Amino acid sequence: MEWPQRHTYSTLSWLTGISKPNLSAYRHASKPMSSVVARRIEIAGRTDPDGPIVAQHLLCFPQLALAIKRYMSADPVHCTRLVRQTVQQLRLLTDEPDVTAYHIKPPTTGDARWNALVAGVAAHTWSLSGHAVSLDWTRDVRPLERWWEPGALPPRWRDWNLVHTPPSLRERRVIFPAEWMEAA
Known about the structure:
By secondary structure, this protein is mainly α. It has one domain (9-181). 52% of the residues lie in helices and 0% in strands. It has helices at 9-16, 20-27, 35-45, 52-55, 61-71, 76-90, 96-102, 112-128, 136-139, 158-163, 167-170. Helix 5 packs antiparallel against helix 6 (76-90) and helix 5 runs antiparallel to helix 8 (112-128). It is globular. The N and C termini lie far apart (43 Å). The mean pLDDT is 92.
């Protein structure tokens, strides 16, 4: 793999969710690089390092996963707000390489439920951006064993929420209505 020369470790880290020390180790071959990691770096390398994702610190999917990992135990409602922010900020992008980089496979959140939510939302926004082919990495996330709905809404809303959940989330057994991804 040819290393993206126009990017710094900081910009690649923001776009991929890979730490700067790990990026350095991959670049200098002191740590083996998997094909998945190489693909993440390759996609990030196609973007403008001064483009909107980095310059405006947009909450792309790798950054969303890292933020969820940080806050999911303490404040799951904040995590749902971060999902909405990620979806809203995607609308600021017009260039194909930026939209593709925004959807780079994120690191794990450490929780299967949140991983399923991130994958479902990414698949949903990817399909809305006019791509005919689905994101490879979202197909690798298995459905949850039981239905899950982040937040603490009364059970009487569950059926309504389920009906209004996009298919990409329902197939992962995550209840997250499309309205929750829209600005209030």
